[in-house]
Specification:
Layout: E1 22-27, E2 35-39, E3 47-50, E4 58-59, E5 69-74, E6 82-86, E7 89-93, E8 101-102, E9 112-117, E10 122-127, E11 132-136
Antiparallel strand pairs: 1-2, 2-3, 3-4, 5-6, 6-7, 7-8, 9-10, 10-11
């Protein structure tokens, strides 16, 4: 269900989604009509994207393995970079979900249940039974070393 008026009225927002449990939803930080969600289960897509506020959803799982996706996270510095936590680790897209790559950086193949990140360019990963990890995303902000001198 989705609402565009603060919850006064609701409408179904399931067109294009499989009959699976939704495990996470994240709304794009730069455009509230864009959102991503993940689903559990097998033999369907696992990551979906809407560009119309939930009126329709498109499968953007691409070549992700056919395993449950547990969490999706948008990079705070680059809205086109997404991380998906699955039952075998982390996958990353730098194209807003159009293509995916493994992003485990030394992590074992473990169930990923949560993410956190900050402006330092680090991604914290919470796992089931294997602790927490911190991965470098490469999205480190460029420092501004310009100093204004008044001669």
């Amino acid at each position: 269900m989705a609402s565009r008026d603060g919850g006064r009225t609701w409408r179904e927002a399931v067109r294009g989604l499989p009959d699976r449990y939704v495990t996470s939803i994240t709304v794009d930080r730069t455009n509230s009509n864009v959102a991503f969600l993940t689903v559990s289960g097998f033999r369907t897509g696992h990551v979906f994207k809407t560009v119309d506020g939930g009126d329709s959803w498109r499968d953007v799982s691409g070549l992700l393995p056919d395993i449950p996706a547990n969490r999706i996270h948008q990079d705070p510095l680059d809205p086109n970079t997404l991380y998906v936590g699955t039952d075998i680790g982390v996958f990353r897209s730098t194209s807003a979900g159009e293509a995916w790559e493994s992003f485990n950086d030394g992590m074992p193949p473990v169930v990923v249940l949560g993410f956190a990140s900050n402006a330092s360019g680090a991604l914290q990963v919470a796992t089931y039974g294997r602790g927490a990890y911190e991965l470098s995303t490469g999205s480190v902000p460029t420092p501004d070393f310009t100093i204004a001198f008044d001669p």
